[in-house]
Design the sequence.
């Protein structure tokens, strides 16, 4: 008896006229879950609530037999799920265990059987002089900035088209509140006796204003070009890590009732998750202030500097010996540079000049990819990584393909509301010598799960532990990155 019945308009056929079973549509998440089964036990019921919040569904529809990934989960949501489980249950569930558990009820059983989290909680620290140690990631960016004499390479801009009665004066007030709320945005980086540190300034030391430009006298393509030129110029203007506020805001007038609002943060104080936090807090505070209401944001229990102190104290070689050993084995004898043929000689100093090529996948291709990913228990990202690695192998003639990818690295729930540079980098090394596609994709899945389960080690420590020779010509361990 079929588990699910799906109606299709017509059979997809192979060139030989036979039914192409691989091209058939995959059952949707509801169909895969089958009949609803109520979660059993307090842990499963609580987990269903967390699950529903992350997936944006009604908790009453989350079945005990539901699969997180078939229901719409992906790698980033898995990170949030692990953090929520740690916060709610005090349980140490690895990303790999979430992937391997077929059902919500099974994951609830894992939680009940798990031990307490190994690393201690992050707590607020006293900083009477405003000084704090840097995180490993901050140290790396500070060193690069010092080496290159100030670089826009790590600017993180985001722009919004604005229409209507936009109160520009309120923008400065909102951002002053955000800067007061997040210490990392008013932090500067200093050095004394050869020792670098971060210093958190009081708001009295901070000077912040919104820059404005007016191109409303221009029209059409001329105006669009002027806006783009302004945005590009702002993107290419370096931050001074010794003196600047780590966020800049500009407003470009395009008419009396429209414009472009531009935020720009430095990576030393921010990551992709932080951009979302900043944007949501701006919208929330602007909405409240414009109605004369107080800001509704809850106070932050900790700050980024507290994370940096926790990382330097607890995320060390002794605590992470097992994870470091994994990376030593996984990256033993890793190629120094990829083997792709280049049409120009590699320079002695890595440059940032490049170009962007755009492409799209049609709906039919996406559906087929989704079906293949489901068949092999992969997330779409894992499948795309496997495809990219195959392509690179074909063009490089190498069976050893190394690709980097960023991860949010916020496995502690208390880090979720913070702006800061938490993102870590994982190294995905694939061996292309497999007899068939199924074996290869199983290997890709194992590579991802292994990397995800050992993501506590900062990338900088991996580089240091492996004694990778430093070169200004290329980045260490990998030169190709994939992000989704």
Sequence:
């Amino acid at each position: 008896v079929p588990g699910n019945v799906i109606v299709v308009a017509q059979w997809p056929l192979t060139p030989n006229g036979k039914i192409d079973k691989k091209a058939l549509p995959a059952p949707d998440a509801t169909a895969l879950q089958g009949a609803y089964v109520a979660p059993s036990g307090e842990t499963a019921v609580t987990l269903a609530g967390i699950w529903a919040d992350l997936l944006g569904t009604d908790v009453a529809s989350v079945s005990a037999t539901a699969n997180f990934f078939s229901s719409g989960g992906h790698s980033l949501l898995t990170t949030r799920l692990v953090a929520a489980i740690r916060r709610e249950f005090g349980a140490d569930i690895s990303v790999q265990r979430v992937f391997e558990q077929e059902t919500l009820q099974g994951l609830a059983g894992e939680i009940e059987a798990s031990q307490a989290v190994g690393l201690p909680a992050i707590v607020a620290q006293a900083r009477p002089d405003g000084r704090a140690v840097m995180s490993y990631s901050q140290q790396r960016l500070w060193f690069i900035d010092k080496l290159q004499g100030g670089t826009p390479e790590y600017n993180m801009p985001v722009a919004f088209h604005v229409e209507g009665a936009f109160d520009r004066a309120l923008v400065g007030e909102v951002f002053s509140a955000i800067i007061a709320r997040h210490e990392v945005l008013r932090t500067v980086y200093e050095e004394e006796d050869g020792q670098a540190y971060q210093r958190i300034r009081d708001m009295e030391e901070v000077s912040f204003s919104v820059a404005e430009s007016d191109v409303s006298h221009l029209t059409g393509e001329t105006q669009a070009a002027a806006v783009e030129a302004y945005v590009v110029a702002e993107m290419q203007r370096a931050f001074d890590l010794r003196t600047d506020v780590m966020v800049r805001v500009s407003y470009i007038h395009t008419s009396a009732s429209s414009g472009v609002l531009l935020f720009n943060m430095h990576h030393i104080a921010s990551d992709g998750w932080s951009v979302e936090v900043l944007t949501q807090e701006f919208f929330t505070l602007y909405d409240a202030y414009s109605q004369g209401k107080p800001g509704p944001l809850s106070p932050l229990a900790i700050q980024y500097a507290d994370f940096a102190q926790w990382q330097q104290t607890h995320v060390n070689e002794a605590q992470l010996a097992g994870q470091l050993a994994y990376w030593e084995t996984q990256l033993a004898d890793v190629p120094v540079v990829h083997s792709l043929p280049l049409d120009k000689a590699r320079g002695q100093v890595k440059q940032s000049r490049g170009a962007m090529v755009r492409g799209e996948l049609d709906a039919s291709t996406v559906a087929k990819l989704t079906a293949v990913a489901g068949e092999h228990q992969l997330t779409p990202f894992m499948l795309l990584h496997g495809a990219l690695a195959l392509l690179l192998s074909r063009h490089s003639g190498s069976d050893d393909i190394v690709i980097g990818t960023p991860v949010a690295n916020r496995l502690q729930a208390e880090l979720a509301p913070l702006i800061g540079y938490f993102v870590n980098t994982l190294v995905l090394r694939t061996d292309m010598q497999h007899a068939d596609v199924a074996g290869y994709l199983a290997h890709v899945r194992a590579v991802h799960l292994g990397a995800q389960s050992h993501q506590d080690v900062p990338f900088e420590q991996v580089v240091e532990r492996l004694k990778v020779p430093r070169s200004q010509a290329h980045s260490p361990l990998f030169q190709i990155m994939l992000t989704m």
